[in-house]
Design brief:
- There is one protein chain.
- The protein is α/β, with parallel strands linked by helices.
- It contains nine helices and 13 strands.
- The strands form four sheets. It has a seven-stranded mixed sheet with strand order 8-7-6-3-9-10-13, sandwiched between helices. Strands 1-2 form a two-stranded antiparallel sheet.
- A hairpin with a 2-residue loop joins strand 4 and strand 5.
- It starts with 12 loop residues before the first helix and ends in a 6-residue tail after the last helix.
């Protein structure tokens, strides 16, 4: 297990920039051309002014107001559209996601997925927020929805820089929090490897939320973290980072872990479909992940991600 405060971030700024460029290119391909609009409204509503932050678009700068302040600071305009959606990424922040192989953790794939969803929200001027949950599906961190790339970067930092000891005094269930705080229909991608014991219960609860919100699952392919090197020992001791338990297993059982993870995640996909939840599987490869997500958006008839 790796403490994110002392190591390289799960996703760095250069990777975020690559993801953003890819999304801008692909999403423009899907939004250009003739297609029926599913939204009706008065257009863009002015929300207010704020100081410029790194990542803001040049087109959002209010040059007249900025000249009054002698461009110190630069002032930007914020807008809200009746057609915009509130997007809350629910990300798995359990201790097991900080484990992996060859210096790459499961959390890296989750962080990249959060970045892809968040930057897609920026493209559509949607509000983006994030919740992180632990192995018991309890909320451990949250960021309220806001518009703009700087807030997406803040959410990424909140996810990957938190320590295992950073826990709120009172743990609240994620599904209860979503139901209680999101008052209008929102887009809720739940990003996890779903390698926890009561995954079936969680999927059932999420399916109930799907009646009020546009909820779908992003299953992080965790097989790579269990494709362990060959060992000569006949017996090995494994340690569970979340429960603190130890278990002795044979070499044969040890080599079957990746296969068992694959079987478990296939069962998760079946449970999700039975619960009428959309699900998409993403892996570590950035380009494959982003292509998969964009194609997933297209299949959903340009519903915002």
């Amino acid at each position: 297990m790796i403490d994110g405060r002392d190591t390289e971030p799960l996703v760095n700024l250069s990777e975020v920039a690559e993801i953003e460029l890819f999304i801008l290119k692909r999403m423009k391909e899907f939004t250009l051309g003739d297609h029926a609009s599913v939204f009706k409204g008065s257009g863009v509503s002015f929300v207010g002014l704020r100081d410029w932050e790194p990542g803001d678009r040049l087109s959002s700068i209010d040059w007249a107001q900025s000249s009054i302040t002698n461009f110190s600071p630069i002032i930007t305009r914020e807008f809200e559209q009746p057609s915009t959606a509130t997007i809350i990424a629910v990300a798995d922040g359990s201790l097991s996601t900080r484990c992996g192989m060859h210096g790459v953790s499961i959390g890296a794939a989750i962080a990249r997925s959060v970045a892809a969803v968040g930057l897609s929200a920026v493209f559509f001027q949607d509000m983006f927020g994030m919740m992180a949950f632990d192995e018991g599906f309890h909320q451990i961190a949250a960021a309220r929805p806001r518009i703009g790339k700087p807030h997406v970067l803040y959410c990424l930092d909140l996810y990957q820089r938190r320590s295992p000891t950073d826990r709120p005094a009172v743990l609240s269930d994620v599904t209860t929090t979503i139901a209680g705080h999101l008052r209008k229909t929102s887009l809720v991608p739940v990003i996890s490897d779903f390698l926890f014991a009561d995954a079936a219960r969680v999927i059932k609860e999420l399916s109930l939320l799907n009646a009020a919100h546009d909820l779908f699952l992003m299953l992080v392919d965790a097989r790579f973290a269990y494709q362990l090197p060959k060992v000569s020992a006949g017996w090995l001791e494994a340690y569970d980072i979340e429960t603190g338990r130890k278990r002795v297993m044979s070499r044969k059982e040890f080599t079957r872990l990746a296969g068992r993870v694959e079987e478990w995640q296939e069962e998760i996909m079946r449970l999700a479909r039975d619960a009428d939840l959309d699900i998409v599987r993403v892996g570590l490869d950035r380009w494959e992940m982003e292509t998969t997500l964009v194609e997933f958006v297209a299949e959903r008839r340009l519903r915002k991600v």
